Amino acid sequence: MLKDVFVTGMGIITAIGETADETLQALKSGYSPKAPARRFETALKDFPVCEVLAGNEALMSGLPLLPQDKPYSRTSLLALNAAGQALQSSPSKVPVKRMGLVSATTVGGMDYNEEHYGDLSSGKVNADSFEILDCADSTQKIAEYFNICYNVTTVSTACSSSANAIIVGARMLQNGLADKVLVGGADALSRFTINGFNSLDIVSPTGCTPFDANRNGITLGEGAAYLVLETRETAAGDSILCRLSGFANTNEAYHQTALSPDGEGAALTVREALKRACLDAGDIDYINAHGTGTVINDLSEGRAVESVFGACGAFGKIPPLSSTKAFTGHTLAAAGAVEAVISILAIGNGLLFANCGFSQQMPELSFTPNIALAEADVRHVLSNSFGFGGSNASLIFSKVS
Fold this sequence. Notes:
With 401 residues, this protein is of the alpha/beta class. It has 13 helices and twelve strands. It has helices at residues 20-29, 56-61, 74-88, 110-115, 117-122, 128-131, 136-145, 161-174, 191-199, 264-277, 295-309, 325-328, 335-349, and strands at 6-14, 99-104, 152-155, 180-187, 223-230, 242-251, 286-288, 321-322, 351-352, 374-375, 380-387, 391-398.
């Protein structure tokens, strides 16, 4: 029988807060800091993004033991801050030597390489500056800083990356490949990111409004989030935040950048997660949707939700659903872990978070997202992450009685 997996620590840094407590307060107050990029210039100078307020020097100041003889991408600095929070909040009953790390990113060190391209191309900097572009560099930086040297790996599956990192970490525990695992992901904003997504014509000029009839694209964000996963053998009882009761990933390979219009791949993923959790659709109290605010994604995910949940739910309808990307922006590889932390906050505080910016019902869907913060007994949360290429991941977090 597979072991249960518990969350015993978490850390997060996004545009709405640099800790879990700050994040919770922002979600409760409706704070959504969309504004034009401040750290660099881009052709889309008036388009809003969700930037972490702290600059790189401020992020480094929170890492007193960070070696100063190496270059660091902003992605790595965000990752180190969030990972440190997660580890600090997770005491163990026994010392853990077999600790694993599964970290995700898609942008990698692109932000650093953009800033220093002239020096790189002229040979004025050393080889380390080339190497930090690699997606594995931020993982290596975490492993070195926190002395993690057992089963260290990197996941990069577009927008489902850190959700898949959580799944890989859980499987490592269940198969005896580690006793404790740090899982999550990070991505920093860059010109490459903004211009790349704009080339697909899916960046909103006004700010994303998920599941709204007039939605016009994504708002890009940056950030990092990490969880500490353990089994009952090592987890200190008072440190358990919740149980990762279900998870699943699929790859429908419908299109390079789009989900299937009928939501078939997403629906399959959700059903598999429910099956693993031994839950019925009606047991889910809240859905933290992928909800990017694009025309295709929200319609596809909405149809998947209708397919799976139908008339189920405690109140005879689809469970309360919202996308918190309207607060944090789409943090790409970090999104799954960011929304995992938000899902755990929903359970721990008995809250259903609002779908910020919503104003008009989508005519193609039968349900309306949760439009206002509400109190509820939240026992099971479904969190969806759907990436390019049809790489879909669903996580279910459950309250521990």
